[in-house]
Design goal:
The protein has 502 residues and is mainly α. Helix content is 58%, strand content 2%. It has 23 helices and five strands. The strands form two sheets. A three-stranded antiparallel beta sheet has the order 1-5-4, covered by helices on one side. Strands 2-3 form a two-stranded antiparallel ribbon. The chain is elongated. The termini are far apart.
């Protein structure tokens, strides 16, 4: 009947439901985390707040706001906030990846709506609207500033966290009915309907901006697969289509850096920051470039700014921890790694960073525990197996170290340090010939590593190969700081062997 509510749209979490027909629409669009028993996940990966993954008991109304924000994002952008082939990929994205602003995918999104959605997806619960009512008020306040008023009321079931909660949108979320007349007051006569306006096409993003955004994202994906030429080509085209898009400049800058064009790459990243100074991703990318060039102060400043802009982004905490560890700030490195693990307990790289920081402080038992967790989360990583083996070697578990280092080499034989560490372990187990073979391979991979040459020289000296030992020491000497204690000791070794013949 006229004037009555004819529909009540319902949004319900179906993480506890199962598709019996695998080809049903939407059957494969989400990944269920439903489990059984104490501590099991209940809900749908991709719509769960980071705090739910860290400690479900601490999740409250802000977790429901996160889930609703993820739904609104997907409705507007036409794609989920987080995508992955499996649960681990999704969990890693939720706890570690920066959310692309919805306006970058749909530039015509009203600013108030884009801000509200982006805020609802903050990793920090305190940065989100406190609950559904606060979220609705933020949306309504923004909508009142527009020509066509829009009121959106969201009733959220807050008894449990968003996994399994039902989110209800009534007809009132779309239309605000006129107030009922007071008793005895005649109802106002209905106004005649307005003249039918000419059909106006809904706004669409400028085609060049949308295509540039797509190409920038494609460039990043290609770069992750180490396809640098095609990544650069996609980024070049993105910049041509829209020279005001910061994402395009960042993509081209990263591709240029990967191709060895350091100056041009840094220039592109600077332009990306100029166009979008609130984008933490661009600051972090430039920090990584400075770090690779050993511009430590600049790298630190860029990482600091990225953390200020997005304190919930796991990757930048890891990168700053690694920088601090390399520059001798052991306490700062450990503090950053602790934060990374707290934010991303399912991120193997966070555990590996803390393992390294702990080892720097000679906490090899703690380092071993963290390295074991990294391998458990990502058993395909050669570097994680290599770290695990080196820590076992420090704790004199030589058979375990040999097995882990050999596994690392099987996965990726390009790491000189892993070959050298296995050589040291083999020497400790009495296999001098195997040790020399591994150190020779390590030196072939990285001929500029003085430590590998000095270690092989010492082993050659033990075997009685004095000319070989002298040759290694003489190769290592120019690679050292001429005034260092290590260089003085190396010169003394050379002189002693030449003088004594042993």
């Amino acid at each position: 009947p006229e004037g009555t509510l004819r529909s009540k749209p319902l949004i319900a979490d179906l993480g506890l439901a199962k598709h019996f027909c695998p080809d049903a629409p939407g059957a494969s669009a989400s990944v269920s985390l439903t489990g059984h028993g104490p501590g099991a996940f209940l809900g749908t990966a991709g719509y769960m707040a980071p705090e739910q993954l860290r400690d479900p008991r601490s999740a409250g109304p802000p977790a429901d706001v996160f889930s609703l924000g993820a739904i609104l994002y997907e409705c507007l952008a036409g794609e989920p906030v987080f995508r992955g082939e499996n649960v681990l990929e999704l969990l890693g994205q939720i706890t570690g990846c920066r959310v692309k602003p919805v306006a970058s995918l749909r530039p015509e999104t009203p600013a108030f709506l884009a801000r509200a959605i982006d805020r609802s997806l903050s990793r920090d619960p305190g940065a989100r609207p406190a609950d559904g009512t606060a979220f609705a008020e933020a949306l309504a306040a923004g909508s009142r500033k527009r020509a066509a008023p829009l009121a959106l009321a969201c009733a959220l079931a807050l008894g449990g966290a968003a996994a399994g909660a039902a989110l209800l949108l009534s007809r009132a979320a779309i239309e605000v009915p006129a107030p009922a007349p007071e008793h005895g007051t005649p109802a106002p006569k209905p106004k005649p309907p307005p003249a039918k306006a000419a059909s106006v096409a809904p706004p669409h993003p400028p085609p060049t901006r949308a295509e540039a955004s797509r190409l920038a994202a494609e460039s990043e994906r290609l770069l992750a697969r180490r396809d640098v030429p095609n990544a650069l080509a996609a980024a070049e085209r993105a910049v041509e289509l829209d020279a005001t898009l910061g994402d395009a400049w960042r993509a081209r800058g990263r591709a240029r850096l990967a191709r060895g064009e350091t100056t041009r790459g840094l220039d592109d990243l600077a332009r990306a920051i100029e166009l979008d100074p609130a984008n933490a991703h661009s600051w972090c990318a430039r920090g990584a470039a400075h770090n690779a060039a050993r511009n430590d102060a600049r790298a630190r400043a860029d990482y600091d700014r990225a953390i200020e802009l997005d304190p919930g982004w796991v990757d930048v905490w890891i990168l700053r921890s690694e920088l601090r560890d390399r520059t001798g700030d052991a306490d700062g490195a450990l503090a950053d790694a602790e934060r990374a693990v707290a934010l991303g307990p399912n991120r193997a790289h966070a555990w590996a960073a803390r393992a390294t920081a702990r080892a720097t402080k000679d906490d090899f038992q703690g380092a071993l525990a963290d390295a074991s967790q990294a391998v458990q989360l990502d058993p395909s990583s050669a570097s994680y197996w290599g770290n695990l083996g080196s820590f076992k070697g420090k704790l004199e578990d030589l058979p375990g170290a040999l097995a882990d280092l050999s596994r690392s080499i099987e996965l990726d034989p390009r790491y000189a340090t892993t070959w050298a560490n296995r050589g040291i372990v083999r020497k400790g187990m009495g296999d001098l010939e195997g040790a020399l073979a591994d150190l020779t391979r390590a030196s072939e991979i990285d001929p500029g590593d003085a430590g590998i040459l000095v270690t092989r020289a010492a082993y050659r000296r033990i075997r009685g190969d004095i000319p070989g030992a002298i040759a290694d020491y003489e190769k290592a000497l120019p690679l050292m700081d001429s005034g260092s204690a290590r260089a003085r000791e190396t010169r003394q070794q050379i002189e002693a062997m030449k003088r004594d013949g042993k």
